[in-house]
Specification:
Layout (H helix, E strand, L loop, with lengths): L4 H15 L2 E4 L4 E4 L9 E9 L2 E10 L2 E8 L4 E7 L10 E7 L2 E7 L1
Parallel strand pairs: 2-6
Antiparallel strand pairs: 1-2, 3-4, 4-5, 5-8, 6-7
Length: about 110
């Protein structure tokens, strides 16, 4: 039976856009990150995300309602729009962070 590539790519696309809330606007050099992962997940690592002329790797960490994001940007500066929902935290609005990310390593956190 031939492989159904379209089926695999549809699943990956849904996971990337749905669970990770990851969307790159290359022409504007903007990366949107709005993770919607299960509360049991405490670490997430993503590599080779293209944002315009940049290639970005990042690690997301969650611990006791505190979230951190470590980025490695191998290219020119881009803008990050990070919205973090507070899963399981009734009545607490999502937190947002907007930053320009320079070349190299960047550490960000949302308390």
């Amino acid at each position: 039976m031939p492989e159904q590539t379209w089926s695999s790519s549809a699943f990956l696309s849904a996971a990337i856009h749905g669970m990770l809330g990851l969307e790159s606007e290359g022409r504007k050099n903007v990366l949107h990150f709005e993770p919607q992962v299960p509360t049991s997940w405490h670490l997430l690592h993503v590599e080779h995300v293209r944002v315009g002329n940049s290639v970005v790797d990042f690690s997301w960490h969650s611990e006791n309602g505190h979230f951190t994001l470590d980025l490695r940007n191998a290219g020119p500066m881009f803008h990050l729009s990070w919205t973090q929902s507070r899963t399981g935290k009734d009545g607490i609005a999502p937190a947002s962070l907007e930053r320009d990310i320079p070349t190299g390593n960047t550490h960000l956190s949302i308390p």
